[in-house]
Write a structure and sequence with these properties.
This is G-protein coupled receptor 22. By secondary structure, this protein is mostly helical. Helix content is 67%, strand content 6%. It has one domain: Up-down Bundle (Rhopdopsin 7-helix transmembrane proteins), CATH 1.20.1070.10.
Length: 405
């Protein structure tokens, strides 16, 4: 073991500090637990809604793109059900020196879930990027056939489940549990700071950077396939507006009454109609390109914003060794990373027109069923008709109208 240097320990040291036995501050626990519970509720409900819609509409899961998207939502539900509650338990678990090994075991399971979430999310987002690249650049001869996609997703799950057990296989895991030394959890007898206990961090960091590199490459090629240049996008939009204005002004002049003897009137009107159709096609194409560019930037920015801070803290822990401040900061950034369970349905599912249409249909049917009048025993709605008949005496009759017609 190395000696203390500037108030922190270097790699290889196993030590105990007085502050390590204190739990997290109350404000830290309340705020972070509130955020995690909100992410759990929103992420679970949104992803479950997407899966219900996909299962209810058999025509939605009819392509490789929808298959890989469903796979991502299944992963998000597992993260909400298994990983998020374990993170809440790690934050709220009080420090208890009598329970030797309990906190260390919980922290190791927590690190296994974090490793699973990090690697599985990065790999699934990478697969979705490859699928979108394949369908945009090679639409006629796709490389990701349904059979290849199934094999690829099976390999994704095999890798994700394999990395889950990595924290249990690192270094002297059982001896560290017996000594109640934790893996990146505040409140134990200390941190086991041997480098052999942090191979799972060494795996998470390159997985993140590889996923980012693949996303940048695939989405840039998608934009190139659609003839979209980010730098000249606004300039082309301005030129398109100028061209549209000139054509519309020409159309206005062409609509002015001309002498019947003019030979080129009919040809001019035909040319104006053709120009209007060309302008409409150009507008639709530019709108589609603008939408693709916007969604590509949002997807990449969301993944970077959620997972880049956690990867940066992992690098700091690998370089400097664990400390209470870095562990608390890592938990905050882990809560940010869990936010992808909320963003994924918004970015990958509800942007699809078929899914939005299916959701509107189900919501409309649900609202109609709630507002529908209770039927009479004969299957009709009771309508009371009153009128005055001879002598001013009021008589009533009851009519039944079949509401199904």
């Amino acid at each position: 073991p190395f000696h203390m240097t500037n108030g922190r320990k270097n790699w290889g040291e196993v030590g105990v500090e007085e502050g390590w036995s204190t739990p997290y501050p109350l404000g830290f626990q309340v705020s972070l637990t509130t955020v995690l519970m909100l992410e759990l509720v929103l992420g679970f409900s949104s992803n479950l809604t997407v899966l219900v819609l996909y299962c209810a509409q058999s025509n939605l899961v009819d392509s490789v793109s929808n298959l890989v998207t469903v796979n991502l939502h299944v992963l998000d539900i597992l993260v909400c059900v298994l990983c998020l509650p374990l993170t809440v338990a790690v934050i709220l678990l009080p420090s208890n020196e009598s329970g030797v090994g309990s906190l260390a075991t919980l922290c190791c399971f927590h690190e296994a879930c974090v490793t699973f979430t990090s690697v599985a999310t990065a790999v699934n987002v990478l697969v979705i990027s490859l699928d979108r690249y394949d369908i945009s650049v090679r639409p006629a001869s796709r490389l990701l056939t349904p059979r290849r996609a199934a094999l690829l997703l099976a390999a994704v799950w095999a890798v994700s489940l394999a990395v889950f057990f990595l924290p249990f296989l690192e270094g002297d895991f059982f001896s560290s549990i017996w000594q109640n030394r934790t893996l990146l959890c505040v409140g134990g007898q200390g941190y086991y700071t041997g480098l052999a206990m942090y191979y799972h961090l060494l795996l998470q960091v390159p997985c993140f950077f590889i996923a980012v590199a693949v996303m940048l490459f695939t989405y840039s090629r998608i934009l190139q396939a659609l003839n979209i240049r980010i730098g000249s996008h606004m300039m082309r939009s301005t030129r398109a507006k100028d061209t549209t204005c000139r054509i519309l002004s020409a159309q206005t002049h062409a609509n002015t009454p001309l002498p019947a003897s003019s030979m080129g009137v009919q040809a001019s009107v035909s040319a104006i109609i053709a120009l209007r159709r060309a302008v409409r096609r150009h507008r639709d194409r530019r709108e589609r390109q603008r939408r693709v560019l916007k969604m590509s930037l949002i997807i990449i920015s969301t993944f970077l914003g959620c997972w880049a801070p956690l990867s940066a803290v992992n690098v700091l822990i690998l370089c400097m060794g664990p400390s209470d401040s870095l562990v608390r900061l890592r938990l905050c950034f882990l809560a940010m990373a869990y936010g992808t369970t909320i963003f994924h349905p918004l970015l990958y599912a509800f942007t699809r027109q078929k899914l939005r249409r299916a959701l509107k249909t189900r919501v409309k049917k649900r609202v109609v069923s709630l507002l529908q009048v209770d039927p009479s025993p004969s299957g009709g709605t009771v309508i009371h008709n009153s009128w005055v008949e001879g002598g001013g005496q009021r008589k009533s009759t009851v009519s039944y109208i079949d509401i199904d017609r």
